[in-house]
Amino acid sequence: MIKVIAIVFGVLFALVVLLVLMKFLGIWVRARVANAPVGMLNLIAMWLRKVPPSLIVDTRITAAKAGLEYTPDQLEAHYLAGGKIDQVVLALIAADKAGIVLNFDRACAIDLAVKGTTKTVLEAVRTSINPAVIDCPGGGGKIDAVARDGIQLRARARVTVRTNLDRFVGGATEETIIARVNEGIVTSIGSAQSHKDVLENPDHISKRVLEKGLDANTAFEILSIDIADIDVGENIGATLQKSQAEADKHVAQAKAEVRRAAAVATEQEMSARTQEMRAKVVEAESQIPMAMAEAFRSGNLGVMDYMRYRNIMADTEMRESIAGEPDESSEK
User: pTM of the entire structure?
Assistant: First the structure.
């Protein structure tokens, strides 16, 4: 009985060994032949840790053929961290062939930094080798700026950048470069005395922007800034002056309306006072007959005096009619 159990276990063990050999023998032989050996136990351990052994072996073979040596543990650790190990090795090979100093740890850090984006560590290395061109402001648009003479200019720039691998991790992205270049162009055009100066020498904008060190704390190094296109826009200064003139006109009209209303009110007030004074005059004149009657009764005024008074009044009225002056009845 014991012999039967031993035979069964032996057969099962042989089957397991055979299955393992069938699964990993090809990978093990491929690594051995390529002079990048990986132990059988390591392959089994990778499989148990849910790491694809073929990916690790193929990646190690690629590195070995390029003259780079990385242990299976290094490759497996980066894979378990969520990185793209094949892209890392290709980036290291490209950097080595181009003479760029890039170690395995920094390449892994860059790969993890671009995780979740459309960028890869291989693209970062390629951009460091072959500079890329960024359009500012991007999307085919143009940057609007106004010179000191009030003329609007619309410019579009092309920025040539190269990846700075030392600052790639934690450095600002392309969006920051575009924003800084846009700001620099607006500042340069705004400080120009005339838009003609900008049109005559657009390279002055590039020089001023380049002097500002816009690539500080970014993942790129700016090689050049070229003004690709510049057009003349509207006369913003004249438009603003026109708007200001319209505003001043409305303010002046409002103030004039206030003065007119005050003048009308003053005129009405003076008319009322005039009527009041005329009423006082009429009231005073109405007392003259009573005073004359009192003078007759007291003997202070005689008939001849009264007749002379009437003659003087008649003579005065005649003179006023000859002079053409309106009398009080016509004024009323």
Answer: 0.60
